[in-house]
Records
---
Amino acid sequence: MRIRTFLQLGLMLLSFTVQAETDVAGSSDPRQLPRFPLSWIVSYSEHNIPEYALATGPMRKIEDVIAPEQSKGVKGDLTRITYRVPSTHNPEQVFNYYMGLLKNLKAEVLFQCSSRQCGSSSQWANNYFDVAELYGLDRTQFFVSAMAGNLKLALYSVQRGNRRVYVHLDLIQPLKQSAETLAVDLRQQGVSWLNDADAIEPLFEYLTSNPTQKVLIGSYSRAPGALDTLLQQSTETAEAFTQLLIDAGIDASRIETVGVGPALPVERDLPSGLWVQLR
């Protein structure tokens, strides 16, 4: 009888542990960054943001304003994920795991810090990430901001005073383009980046809704190579996109094309891209 009681108690404890380590509803891992082994998601949210200040320096309080000492403004779809990590691991082990993943992605590190070099953990938790669970011991914290292709991210790992270990990811992906968002860009700026070289639907819908509007399709490339080669590649990219629009029924006389190679007059992180400009 006593053995059976102990077995039942053990099963109840095991059941509780499994339930306690279940991800929050509706959450998922980012495709490019599989989670640290045996960790589980305790907080998950998705937001469309007009601008995100990607930290490229430590947290500081300057004239009563708490913010990163330096930052890079980016806009897009923000996904926030907080993981709890088994207490048998420390924040440095978790951080090194993700740094290995970023290396495999050939990510560009924008800023990296550890311990008190990062500033106050309280400021990262409450003022930057707005996740109270990330308020830990300053000496245990690690942070990195990086870019991998279209993905931009901020990663923070820390151990709290109760020895619980957390890792948090802010992931910013380019906004999903639609005919409506494209129209807003063109109306306000006269130009818009085309996020996907194969997705003509937003521009096709815009041109169909504005049958007299003419546009310029431009392309650039900053890949390694000779100038003549890059000019030809960017021209071919612009022409290929334009041909997709023509094949879909847009009059060719409404579209001009240009390939500028590496000679893009504005700053942009991506090594290549397409844009549409009103004529």
---
Amino acid sequence: MRSLSFRVTHLVSALVVLGGCERQEKPPAPAPAPVKASAPAPAPVAPSRSSTEAELRERLRCEALLGFSGLLAGQQEFFGEKDAWTADVTRLPSPAPCTDGSRVPTPDATWLAGCHFRYAVSVAGSAPDNSTFSVRAVGVGGLAEGLTYTLTHGYVDRQPVRVWPSELVLEECHGVRRPEGTPLPAPLCEGASNLKAFFASQKAYFGEKDRYSESAAQVGFAPEPCLDGTRAPVPDDTWIAGCRFIYRAEVSGTAPEQTFRLTARGMKGPVVERVLTLDSQYTWSPADPGCAP
């Protein structure tokens, strides 16, 4: 299996305040009645953005991001089995529908349909070392109409490449609900989920070798980078980098009577300086954040 852990406008309504005055008829009495001074007219209100529409546009961007993320994972799984990318959309996961189960229409069976976007997949080059796949997300209807994003991932001349749309930023999507209505996991869950994977890798390695290892590569633990291909910085080679977190294993004792302690340290974004640990007895510190596997 080849490891793919590497680098790869608002139309708003405005509230318009119209100021005016009434023309008063002259009173019939020869002397005009005293007129009380009127209050000054209110200052005009500048048009403001609709927070509702801004939120909807943010959700659209996050929907496209999640669609790309799912298709990227599907392509990676397929490549791990076949050493090739696929343009057959039936072999890839379908993007989430809307909460009512509806999806946008597609021109033909070569497209995948999500809630507000449809996705086209193409493959270029010769597998496995000089091939890429691209996914194009096209918005359909309403605020999504006209929105287009493209992801490209793979190898060029045996070098890994990933081109990710700069408008789609994962940090902006936490707390935003998916099209199917469920929220994204908290940023801390990246570290927790990877610690669970690291734990499983250590236990599997022990089952084969009767020992643990401080080498993530040796036990087969390879955390994914950020969606745009970047990784957190590491202080030295005892750490391995994921997206926002870095990871390390410390092994104590003599095989086979060994224990280990795994550490995830937040290095950027909202998890800077957050530290999670998990030991060989599955003891968390602090407590297990409760993230889904």
---
Amino acid sequence: MNFSSFLTNLVIPLNLCIVLLLVAAVFFMIRRRKLAFFCAAAGLGWALFWSLPASSLWAGGRLEQLYPYKAASTLPTADAIVVLGGSTANSRHNWFEPYDSARAIPRVDTAALLYRAGRAPLIILSGAALEGSVSEAQIMANALRQQGIPADAMALETQSFTTHENGLYTAAELKRRNIHRILLVTSALHMPRAVAVFNKQGITAIAAPSRPQITVPNSDPRFSFWQPDLRALAASRSIVKEYVGLLVYWIRGWI
């Protein structure tokens, strides 16, 4: 596990809450009760903060709105469409609603819309095999073929496990094809870090995010900004991951 992954896993709300409660228990046993109280309160407060939908809407919505969603037909043309592997919050339509496969918004659907709108003649799919032997790139290619996208309009990059590697390996393939201007497809939450990574590689990346997921649900009249919600707490790991990722990538000179 690299430093970025360790730091991300540490500050994920539920994980940090458990760690701080364990530290509090140790302090309590050695009679450092003020420190025990502080650690316990900090851990519970951190988890409570991220369980509130208002926190996700503020912190995650801020990232999503840096590159707002636009319809495929309104985006400029480019030499290629690059799709990054991953599935933010399981591609659910809205973070605060139950998962519904019929309303899911996978990244490949965004890429298919762009291709059919004539925005670019080539789709490059980026992502290694996270589990098993089939890469994310291949899985996305299979999904696009099911939507009628021809195989000769797709190219696969199957080595990358991180956003940095997405940019590094895909940029090499793009430059080999003399392509320097792309439409970049990923989740709206992930887009700020992804665009920065590709720009650092000398690629002009035009953001073409999937629809935002961190929005107030219209279908739930009981929704409350200030009522703790387990879905919000579970999904907050993606928001924390992006902020930690931006910090670590900036420190390492990757963006």
